Automatic annotation (TrEMBL):
The active site is at residue 103. Transmembrane segments: none annotated. The lineage of its organism: Bacteria, Bacillati, Actinomycetota, Actinomycetes, Mycobacteriales. SUPFAM superfamilies: Glutaminase/Asparaginase. Gene3D superfamilies: 3.40.50.40, L-asparaginase, N-terminal domain. This is Asparaginase. Signal peptide: none annotated. Residues 210-323 form the Asparaginase/glutaminase C-terminal domain. It comes from Nocardia acididurans.
Amino acid sequence: MTPGARPGGAIVRVDVLYTGGTFGMADHGAGMSPRSGLGAEIAELVGEFVAETGITVDLRYDELDQVIDSADADAGTAARIAERVRSGRTAGRAHGVIIIHGTDTMAYVGARLAFELWDSAVPIVLTGAQIPLGQPGSDARANLHLALRSLAAQLDPSTSLAFGSGLHPAVRASKRAVDEYAGFMTVRAATPPAAPVTLPATAGGPGGPVGLLTVFPGLHADLLEAALRHYHGGLVLECYGSGTAPMSDPALLAAVRRASERGTPILVITQCDSGAVDLARYQPGRALLEAGAVSGGDMTREAALAKLSYLVERGYSGPQLRRQLTTNLLGELSDPLAAVPIPSAKADIPSRDRSSVV
Ligand code: ASP
C-alpha cells in the first residue's frame, strides 16, 4: 500500500456537490447554460469508475438549488458552498468531498474554500470540464474519475483542483487555458506552513467588501480611488514584477496613502508567475510600502483575494491582519527567508517544472 493510501478493498464514501459550470451545461440556442438534476448521470459515471477500478464508492449526491455559470459567482459563493459542505458533513460519513464547479472561477472559489474549510478532516476536491458531459470529446467523465481516484488515494485533508492530468493545490492554482483539457496550472508549488495554524471559524467583524485591481500603464488615479472607496474592506493590487506601479503619479500615491489611513488594507501581489514581491527593491515599491501597502509575497491573485477577504470577514485588521497576511497559513505563501536571490545572469535561472502531479 502506498503511504497515505486507503487500505485495499475499503469503501470510499464520497459526497458530490454539483454547483453548475460547463460540466453539466447544454445549449438550447441562447449559449450554454447549466442544467440541473444531474444525479442519475453522476451515479452512472461513478458506477463506471467502480467497474473500471474495483474501488467501491458509496456516493451521496447533492446539488445547489440554483446551479450557475460560475462567471456569476459573487463574493459570498464560496462561503455558501462551504456551508453546504459543512452541513452535509455533519454525519461525518464522507472520506472526501467533490465539488463540481465551473472553471471560470474555480480557482477563486477553490482558494476561498481552502480558507473556509481549513479545519476539514477530509480532502475537498473541485472539478469541472471544458466540454459538457455527453458531448463529443467531453472531459467531464475523466475529470470526475480523476477526482474520485485522488480521494481514494489521499488522506491529506486539503483543498485541491482535479483537472486535466493532475491535482492542483487550490491556494496555488490558476485557470490558464480555455482550449486545452489541462485548463489549470499550479503557478507555484504549495509550501506547507512551518507550524500548523488555527484560524477563527466564525465571522468576528464588520469587514467590508474586498476587491482586486490590476495595475497597467495608464492606470488613472480615479480608478484606483474608486476601487479603494468601494472595496474599503481591502484591495489586492496586482502590480508589476517585484511590486511596482506608476507611483511617480502623486495622485496614485495619495490614493494609496489616504486609503491606508482610513484603515483599508492594500495587499500587493505580482503579475508574474515566478518570484515574489519585494517592495524594498525599487523606488515605486518603496513608495507603496511607505504609503501603507503590505507585501503579498508570491501569492496568486486568487489566493490573495481569498485570504484577504476571509481574514477581513473574520474581523482581522491592523497589525494582526498584516501578520496573518504575511504568514504562510495553508501553503499559499512561500517563506520569504527561503526566497532565492536573482542570479547575476538570466541564463543562470533554472527553468521551472510546472507539470502537475498525481
Ligand atoms: N463559463 C463556464 C463556467 O465557469 C466555464 C466552464 O465551466 O468551463 O461555469
